């Protein structure tokens, strides 16, 4: 089932079908576009109505290091509350980091203003999770897609805008005659395509995909995933693909970072992270994913974690995962483990990192 | 931090007595704009100790059929017909009060969204204890004691301390445990779980599914698991019924159906979902959208999206996909599928 298929969607029109067999088979990766260095976002917790005083901080993002190169897809996985959506908001400059920096093409985002910031915002676009609340119900699809051009007028000449909007709709698999319809006239999958067209309209270099398929039905998810892959090949886009669905992330990503309670606990190629996970949390996470093949049932190591994720307002000292970890020793409470390679071939933030296969390899 | 090697595969042999029989169940919603046919003649049965998964996408009628069994649909606008026999007695033929007497202790249900299913202004202990106060006339003190016992049974840590806490003080996984505690309070023979883990993270999902299976092993109750997650079905269920546009399109044991699908829709679902075991090649989605239930396509409801449909001269007489409705028929031993050309689908996906 590795052949490119023609089934991109009901109205898929573009003659482009140059999909490679596998995501990792894409050409050599380009230069580094985005770099996060020790990125932090602490939200203040306040008490009092008139005289607010800060009584603590929610450490939503607490020291994230990641890089994104041209043309690649980096997956960011983690459970709810781990801070992955805050990372996406920081990247599209909807939130300001409280520490660390975001470098785009070598320049610090915090130092950008005026024209440079405007250009950054055009080049780094976002697709949201919920296709129902992220489109303005009072605007037509054409207006939604074209709205960005009212700020970035140089991208599309004024007189060709309708034509260009229709091209975009066609490219994402929607009928170009639908420009005057409203979002409520579309299904969830179609709305997600509208969101994708809106992001593409500004000719971005990077698209932050924040759970782009998790609100969709399974049969429609695949259509959108395929569309994202095709667009990447066609326009040389880089994706930061944020999701909690480990299977989708493995499918689409070239590299994967696993996040727990505000920081990255493991990173590597999809192969490294999924076949030789080295951080106990990654192992537990992978072992919880139900498998689809009856013949693999019962071949999986199961690691059942106890308890819940601690509050990010009061994270454990040292290693954040130690309160739920079966390997925890005294050192884990005193010293936060660095995200470095301890002989597994890829970095993991654990003092006792050890590769362990938890997902059985499907041999046939 | 419990680790164990693997869980025992679910007992595939279902020898228990039949608990529930659903026969030719129809549910319609009459609206000003027309009739929405949510469930169009489904039949299945559930035995003691059996786990039956009902697999389908949104709008397939999987939740509505369960709500009809629970009697929680508003009638009207809903119109329910057919037969729902619980331990041999047809509930649709009973008076509302008789239905309540049978259903209350016999069948219970848990829902996807535990936070909105719990009352925010009562403590969880009070809500669990309500079962005993209403159905068994227990005193407040007695009910609270039993609530703590139940919370222990669903493995809520420090149950005695948390019994007076309110729903918002619990995490998502713990709230779902509270729901489960309420559902099993009266030792039901059947538990219907409607997407019980969809809102939960995978590590919590694994905990909750484990709990449900353990409870089933202890009590021998029948479990109807409504889900869209193929992985959950594979790991938890004995049998599976795949629903599309209000009909069951395929039915069989999970092993059979997942190893070799007999309906193009099931086949399409399997091919469109990426797996964690392997990166896989390009996904092969099902084209188009699920149908509008107010205007279900003629013939086989799946035919507009089906890659294997046969129309006009290609079709065998009386088996034209756009005209003739395919009945759910036996296509292999223990396997039923509602496709005119099911034999061509079987054996294709030999992976």
TrEMBL record, chain A:
What are the BP-aspect GO terms?
Answer: peptide transport; transmembrane transport
Q: Where is this region: Disordered?
A: 1-25
Q: Which UniProt keywords apply?
A: ATP-binding, Nucleotide-binding, Transport
Q: Where is the ABC transporter domain?
A: 34-286
Work out whether the entry's keyword set contains Hydrolase.
no
- Per the record's keyword annotation, is Transcription regulation included, yes or no? no
Q: Which GO terms describe its molecular function?
A: ATP binding; ATP hydrolysis activity
InterPro entries membership: AAA+_ATPase (IPR003593), ABC_transp_ATP-bind (IPR050319), ABC_transporter-like_ATP-bd (IPR003439), ABC_transporter-like_CS (IPR017871), Oligopep_ABC_C (IPR013563), P-loop_NTPase (IPR027417)
Q: Which PANTHER family match?
A: D,D-DIPEPTIDE TRANSPORT ATP-BINDING PROTEIN DDPF-RELATED (PTHR43776:SF7), TRANSPORT ATP-BINDING PROTEIN (PTHR43776)
Question: What does the similarity note say?
Answer: Belongs to the ABC transporter superfamily.
- What name has this protein been given in UniProt? Oligopeptide transport system ATP-binding protein
TrEMBL record, chain B:
CDD domains annotated for this entry?
A: ABC_NikE_OppD_transporters (cd03257)
Q: How does it sit in the membrane?
A: Peripheral membrane protein
One GO cellular component assignment for this chain's record is:
plasma membrane
One matching Pfam family, short form?
A: oligo_HPY
- Supply the alphabetized keyword list: ATP-binding, Cell membrane, Membrane, Nucleotide-binding, Transport
Gene Ontology BP terms: peptide transport
What subcellular compartments does it reside in? Answer: Cell membrane
| Residue stretches making up the ABC transporter domain | 20-270
One molecular function GO term is: ATP hydrolysis activity
* Principal place of residence: membrane
Q: Tell me the PANTHER family matching this sequence.
A: DIPEPTIDE TRANSPORT ATP-BINDING PROTEIN DPPD, OLIGOPEPTIDE TRANSPORT ATP-BINDING PROTEIN APPD
Homology family: Belongs to the ABC transporter superfamily.
> What is this protein called in UniProt?
Oligopeptide transport system ATP-binding protein
């Amino acid at each position: 089932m590795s052949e490119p298929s023609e089934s991109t969607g009901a109205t898929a029109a573009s003659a482009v079908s140059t999909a490679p067999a596998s995501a990792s088979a894409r050409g050599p990766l380009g230069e580094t576009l985005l770099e996060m260095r020790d990125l932090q976002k602490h939200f203040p917790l306040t008490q009092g109505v008139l005289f607010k005083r800060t009584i603590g901080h929610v450490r939503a993002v607490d020291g994230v290091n990641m890089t994104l190169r041209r043309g690649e897809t980096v997956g960011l996985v983690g459970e709810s509350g781990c801070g992955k959506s805050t990372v996406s908001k920081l990247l599209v400059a909807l939130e300001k980091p409280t520490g660390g920096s975001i470098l785009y093409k070598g320049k610090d985002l915090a130092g950008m203003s005026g024209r440079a910031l405007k250009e950054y915002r055009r080049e780094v676009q976002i697709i949201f999770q919920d296709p129902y609340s992220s489109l303005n119900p009072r605007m037509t699809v054409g207006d939604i897609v074209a709205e960005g051009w009212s700020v970035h007028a140089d991208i599309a000449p004024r007189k060709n805008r309708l034509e260009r909007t229709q091209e975009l709709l066609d490219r994402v698999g929607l009928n170009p005659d639908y420009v005057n319809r409203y979002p409520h006239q579309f299904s969830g999958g179609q709305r997600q395509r509208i969101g994708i067209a809106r992001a593409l309209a500004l000719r971005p270099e990077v698209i932050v995909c924040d759970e782009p398929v998790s609100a969709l039905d399974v049969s429609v998810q695949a259509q959108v995933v395929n569309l994202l892959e095709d667009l990447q090949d066609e326009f040389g886009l880089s994706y930061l693909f944020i999701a909690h669905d480990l299977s989708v992330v493995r499918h689409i990503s070239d590299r994967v970072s696993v996040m727990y309670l505000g920081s990255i606990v493991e990173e590597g190629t999809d192969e490294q992270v999924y076949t030789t996970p080295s951080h106990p949390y990654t192992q537990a996470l992978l072992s919880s994913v139900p498998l689809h093949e009856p013949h693999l049932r019962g071949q999986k190591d199961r690691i059942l974690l106890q308890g819940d994720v601690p509050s990010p307002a009061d994270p454990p000292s040292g290693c954040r995962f130690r309160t739920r970890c079966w390997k925890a020793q005294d050192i884990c409470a005193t010293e936060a483990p660095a995200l470095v390679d301890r002989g597994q071939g890829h970095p993991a933030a654990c003092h006792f990192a050890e590769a362990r296969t938890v997902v059985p390899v499907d041999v046939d | 931090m419990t680790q164990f090697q693997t869980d025992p595969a679910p007992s595939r042999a279902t020898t228990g007595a039949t608990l529930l029989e659903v026969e030719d169940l129809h549910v319609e919603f009459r609206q000003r704009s027309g009739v929405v046919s949510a469930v169009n003649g489904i039949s299945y049965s559930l035995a003691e100790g059996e786990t039956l998964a009902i697999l389908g996408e949104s709008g397939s009628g999987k939740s509505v059929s369960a709500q009809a069994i629970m009697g929680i649909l508003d009638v009207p606008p809903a119109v329910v017909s057919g037969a729902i026999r619980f331990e041999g007695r047809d509930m649709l033929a009973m008076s509302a009060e008789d239905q309540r007497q049978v259903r209350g202790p016999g069948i219970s249900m848990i829902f996807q969204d535990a936070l909105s299913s719990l009352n925010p202004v009562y403590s969880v202990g009070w809500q669990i204890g309500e079962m005993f106060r209403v159905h068994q006339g227990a005193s407040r003190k007695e009910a609270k004691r039993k609530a703590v016992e139940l919370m222990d049974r669903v493995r809520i840590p420090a149950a005695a301390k948390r019994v007076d806490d309110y729903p918002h003080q619990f995490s998502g996984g713990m709230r779902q445990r509270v729901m489960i505690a309420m559902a099993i309070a009266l030792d039901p023979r059947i538990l219907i779980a409607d997407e019980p883990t969809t809102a939960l993270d995978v590590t919590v999902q694994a905990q909750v599914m484990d709990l449900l299976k353990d409870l089933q092993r202890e009590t021998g109750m029948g479990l109807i698991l409504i889900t869209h997650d193929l992985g959950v079905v594979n790991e938890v269920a004995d049998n599976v019924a795949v629903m599309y546009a209000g009909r069951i399109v395929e039915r069989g044991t999970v092993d059979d159906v997942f190893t070799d699908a007999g309906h193009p829709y099931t086949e399409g679902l399997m091919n469109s979902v990426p797996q964690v075991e392997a990166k896989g090649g390009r996904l092969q989605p099902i084209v188009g959208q699920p149908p509008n239930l107010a205007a279900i396509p003629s013939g086989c409801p799946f035919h507009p999206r089906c890659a294997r449909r046969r129309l006009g001269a290609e079709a065998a007489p009386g088996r034209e996909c756009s005209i003739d409705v395919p009945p759910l028929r036996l296509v292999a031993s223990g396997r039923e599928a509602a496709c005119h050309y099911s034999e061509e689908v079987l054996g294709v996906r030999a992976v």
